[in-house]
Amino acid sequence: MSAPVVLEARGLVRDYHIGGSLFSGARTVHAVKGVSFSVEKGRTLAVVGESGCGKSTLARIITMIDAPTAGELLIEGNRVDIARHGLSKEMRRKVQIVFQNPYGSLNPRQKIGDVLAEPLLLNTALPAAERRDRAMQMLLKVGLKPEHFNRYPHMFSGGQRQRIAIARALMVNPSLLVLDEPVSALDLSVQAQILNLLADLQDEFALTYVFISHDLSVVRYIADDVMVMYFGEVVEYGPRDEVFANPQHDYTRTLFAATPRADVDSIRARLARKAAAAEPA
Questions:
Q1: Would you say 38 and 7 are in contact if contact means Cβ atoms under 8 Å apart?
Q2: pLDDT tens figures, 160-180
Q3: CATH homologous superfamily of domain 38-68+81-278?
Q4: What's the pLDDT score for residue 281?
Q5: What are 72's strand-pairing partners?
Q6: Measured between alpha carbons, how far is 75 from 88 in angstroms, rounded to an integer?
Q7: Residue 71 pLDDT > 70, yes or no?
């Protein structure tokens, strides 16, 4: 029996109308053009493409920040129409996002314990003591220590901040986690740690991921399915192993040729070669 579908997109379109200027007339930018896909519970869909391909616009639609111009978005079978009906707290809790740069979304004046407890304060009626306990439990779950609870964001490394961002996103038990370039700003060894963390959390909590990336190879370790976008359109979509073994579209093959291997095994091999080269002869 197949798992329930958490996210479904049917012919999503997103247009942006740009006003004219002295030298050019008004025009319409077609950022997303009829995109359809689905993601089952506990699985990871990687959305891959270069800058300007529409993947970030698609992420804004999935996270219900922007409404599509046309098409349907369904979360756990319920149609989302924020343009006409707005967005309830319950629906907002179902989808959370982790950005590329977590420091930009962390309040520098707020202690990490308060950062983690805040989603519970805004979305639940839990007492302060229980909010604190849950925040501490999640801090430990992502590999940080109790003494980190009362520290500020500037006191952490990039990898630690990303762990904090992941923990905050999980505080309200979302049905779907959108990961927008979550490891691209990190060192290779830290990338491997975060990818392993995401895989472990997915196994433990049966999480569903949409993993946005410009790098096809970095998703080899974590993705179940891969969707390649090019100028707002889906040019390749299928199980990870099939896409990697036999890419059908010229653009996908170009991405494979241009992108260095960044899966966990390749990261480890690259670090080993670097360490060996640094050893005295």
A1: yes
A2: 999 999 999 999 999 999 999
A3: P-loop containing nucleotide triphosphate hydrolases (3.40.50.300)
A4: 55
A5: 10
A6: 13
A7: yes
